[in-house]
Write a structure and sequence with these properties.
- The structure holds two protein chains of two kinds.
- Chain A is mainly α.
- Chain A is 62% helix and 5% strand.
- In chain A, helix 5 crosses helix 6, helix 7 crosses helix 8 and helix 8 runs antiparallel to helix 19.
- Helices cover 63% and strands 4% of the residues of chain B.
- In chain B, helix 11 runs antiparallel to helix 22.
- Chain B starts with a helix and ends with a strand.
- Classes of the chains: A mainly alpha, B mainly alpha.
- Chains A and B meet through helix 1, helix 23, strand 5 and helix 30 of A and helix 17, helix 27 and helix 28 of B.
Amino acid sequence: MHLIYLLLSVGLILFNITGLTAVAVRFLPMAASARFLAVAGVVLLSFAVEHFVGFGKLSWLWPLTTAGAALAIHGRRDWQANKPFWSAELVFALGFAYGFAWRFAFPDIDAGSEHLTDLYFISNFMPGQTLPAPDRWLSGGVFDFYYAFQHYAAALLARLFGLEAGLAMNLAWALLIGFIASLAWEIASHFIRQRWLRAALVITLLLGGNGLSPLMPWMIEDSADADVRVAAADRIWESTRFSGLYDERVNTPFGELVAGDPTAPEFKQHLELPLETIAYLSYLGDFHPPLGSLALLLLTLALSLHTARAAKATDTERQDASKALPGAALGLTVPLMLVTNTWIFPLQFLLLLSWLVFRRKTLATEWRPLLLGTVLGFALIYPFLSYFAPASLATPVHWVKAGDHTPAVYFLALHWPFLLLVIAGLGLSRREPWAGWLALTLAGLLLMSELIYVDDPMGDKYERFNTVLKWWSWLWPAALIGLGSVLLGRGGRIGQVLGGLMLATLLTYALPIAAYWRHADKPHMGKMAGNAWLRQDDIQSSMLTHLKNSPDGVVLESVEQGAYSASSALALNAGKGVVLGWADHVAQWRGAPSYVPLRHAAIRAIYRGQLPDPAGWLNQHQVRYVVWSLADEQRAPGGRQQIDAAIGRDFSWRSFYQNGEQQVGIWERRDAQRAVTRKP
Amino acid sequence: MNLIYFLFTLLLLVVNLAGLTALLSRFVTSFALARAAGILLFCLFFFFIEHFVGLGKLTWLWPLTTGAATFLLYSERQRLIEQSFWRAELVFLVALGYGLAWKWTFPVIFPTSERVTDLYFIGNYLPGSQLPPLDHWFPPNRFDFYYAFQHYAAALMGRIFGLGPGLTYNLAFALLMALPITLAWDFAERFLVRKWARWLVIVTFVLGGTGATPFVHLSYVQPANPSAEDMAQHVNDGMLASQRFIGYFDQRLNTDFGQRLFPKMATSSWTPRELQSEDFGYQFYVSDYHPPLGGFFLLLLAIAAIGASEAGSQAKSGRDGDARVSDDATFAPQALLALTVPVMLATNTWTFPLQVALVLGWIAWRYLNGRPPLWKALLLGGLGGFLLLYPFLSGFANKALATPIRFVSPEDHTPPVQFLAVHWPLLLLATLGLWQKENRRLALLFSVVFLGLLGISELIYVDDPTSGAYERANTTMKWWGWIWTGGSVALGVSLLASSRAWVRWLVVASFMLINLYVYDVARYWIHSGKGDQGKLAAHGLYTQDPTVRDMFRYLDKAPYGIVLENCYGDAYTDSGIYAVFAAKPSLLGWPSHLSTWHSNVGQAWMLKEQILQFYLGTLPNATNWLIANKVEYIVWNYKDFQMQPEAWNLANQAISDQYAWIEFQANPEVHVGLWVRRP
């Protein structure tokens, strides 16, 4: 039953996107770019308007958009005559299917990594109020401090098709993979004629590791008695988080040659300098900004390529017409990057700047659409910026200190494929000036990442962590797809052999990924709403259903840990906000204001029956539901009775489980309770 | 007065349906199919729309639709007369009349089988709120876990004509049972020239038993000179003996022949498995407006659509130039055939896989015949249906009970003799069908599908929460009933159309044996009590008491709000009867049903305990509890008063500042009435 629904939902979404693409390719004859641009454009427009007026529920819209899509597709129903369009659709569908398979097997949106954070971001946008939306992790607050455009898009998907937020998150994740794969394919198609070779490149993007991945088995040997699952997960982590974390586990002569002997007293702890690939992000399962920024990066490359190669066309009139939209779209990527992944904004800006330099000879005909796109984009995100800019954290840029540079050996071991591709790009620049531009720009940006960093609140070992995590992880796919395509397609036999060898070594990362797939438990396979881990407990499931069907209102859940706990999962899945979500996150985003720890402490005190006037506190925060879980009961036996005595005047208790004195349930504010059933 | 109102309602309904049929007959060549398609599409459309916006009261609609229907019938009278529309209407009226006769005679709804449950399903949809509606048995949750499309359809009719819940139920029952009969007639008419043969199929379909019927009559003797009470028991036994034969009635046979053929099977470690087969005709007796009804409707719709596709193309075949014309004629039936698949999901999920098998079987059969189906029609019907149901599925898919399919374990298999005793007619018909050559081997299709499904039903089953003797009961009840009903009509017609006389007579003879059940039906009619005859509002059993009648009326007219009633047990009790006849939410429905639907519902059981305490007058903080649970009305009936006479005072003292007492009888020593929440 659920599968039928899932299939229908996916079919409906893909059908709508295909319809949108069918319209968009009329203006931009590159299917993957047109598709992604059209989707991003629709979302951006809606994002802008909803800062003035929230659209509320939108599920009435899909029958209309589907009818529109049917009309658009009708014109292309003869697939023989529209082969390029439908083969591009097939590539997108395959990419989506790959992403879908990941989320289908591992759908849980739980306390692990940033799963719940992403659900919270999406959840904020679900009711469709005027933006900035009320903050569901801090009652009374406003969600205006995060670049959550990608999450807004997922929420829009949910609102359009009446999906649960969790399901929308998992499907949007798969859609992003579809966009990334199809854009990568489109770039590769410019240079590589053989389909299998393009496929190999795209597969390396999706499943390959970084430069360290193929070296790991020679640096860290598995212990013989390690569990297969743990071993696979370790392998996935090792190359991603080598410097400063896994380099302390090297146990071979080669490993010690690279990292030193971790058992030796003189072993120096390194800074954590990670590089995350899409394969690693797939394993992690976060619907986090890096994915969106990768799609934007590939769009930028595809558009620039289109412009560069269209220039070769002789018909100047056609040239102008076909350049206007790609040019404007290129300009649009800068503001889009700002709202999608602010960390990457400077890089995207510099990339475009260098593009202008590269195009200096034809700039006279190209600057207008480019500027128009940028200005239009900034105008559309302006309402967002007016809230975001004052609320976002100050992140000054500093020079990397002398001792904080990446050790040369580490740098080489991690970036050797990058460097190889840059050299190849420079070497082939005579044949493909575009490759020369890209190689030079990427090399410059990599160098920049070694010279400066963004000084966020993290320090010590994590001084450069966020900067390189974001920058390197973004630069690497640019090199792999942009320069890899050139090397494989234009590098002749030597280039193909060299490139092929590189892909093969990088794809060794697919082995631990495959092992993980094969051996990891998949208890909730197919339950793509992502809350099966919560619903597997009957009591929680009943409470969730009840809360979901109850009127809107602020929920209080206990907050024991600072982050990475299940706190707020119940409320978010029920489409409601909590008084306080993950306290550490909330505090960090808002520049560590004092009221967050105070609120955190008050909540801890309430759940231990130690707050002097809990009823007053609950009134002050306009709490409507107070959740008392089994964990709360076990943590503070008898606490429930104490709380009940203190707040019973205003709240009535609803029990979902009782075993002697032990009870689990929800307190619900008593006033305004009548309205629910009075009107049908 | 009641009769006049009822007859006028009926007239309105018939005129509206006739208009709808006339309209759809522009696109669908058969009137029976046009009627079925019209009703189905109308309900599907509203079902779809109301998932976005609840349309509330719809009584304003009938004057418009009736006007439109009358206009249409008048303006198209010439065409309709030429195409013998009125003959098709007559068939419909006779079929409707038969169902109405049952409901006229036995209209009452009380806690037996699932009648009250079905009334509650309908009641959820009566207020016309946005779907999924509030769950009237478990507020504030939503009613999104059950495949209740046919209940929605009934409520839609009730809302348009302004009917009460009971009348809606009874009228919808008669209507939904009439449609399959007209479809069966349509199918029979297409292939059978002889009128008696058509009638034989229809009688077997509507009044026939199962293969077990002759065995019941041969192996069970009714005791001589029974009392009226015993007789009532016997006639009931007669009705269910053929359907609940395996594991139930075969263990109660009282002749030597019967006991020799079907020996007692129970051992210390094993109880005979109850393997029921509830076919179409049996539903009149059960009288539940339950999903199998809708399932039979869709089954017959599929069979009639197949008939229309085949007969339509057959007439034109042989001449290549006409191939396109025949395609046009069969487009609508093929689209309808595909539409039955998604609709089955929302109507009777149990038989969804079977419906899929039937449609897939037909597609395969078309390919074997070298005549591929019209995929455009199939896609339009199938995908269109799924899209219309998509908003429903988004809630339903997440809430529906997980019902894994498992292999039947050795101890749960049907004993071979019993299997033969019940299924011999289908085995016989299907075997004959395998060799049938007429109508492009249409019988082969039905033989393979129905026989194949019967075989599969012996290998796998749906593992629902019941177990032990009832492990397979729900599965066989739904599947076998569907298989035999479909098999008897489809194969009966196909074989009676045979050019070989011996085949025809073999079918006639076996149908005659099965139709011994007509005797059981007649006996049931004659000997059963008919105390509530004609009271189609269905609450005659309760409202014969004037106090209860007044309370029913009060609640019916009162504003929408949660009603609290006492809990008299876990299921099949009078708990919730006041609310259900007023189409209002109960604080708590039947807990064991809630348990089945929502697996573990701890809070329902706790709520039940609190309700019991309230009715004993011992619940602490009763007012707070009532307000927390948003209770608007509290029923205190004779039974509650008698169970604990002093509890009324306790309860009244506790809640009177928030709830006003309304007394409904005159004796000052007794308190029967309602508390109503003060404004």
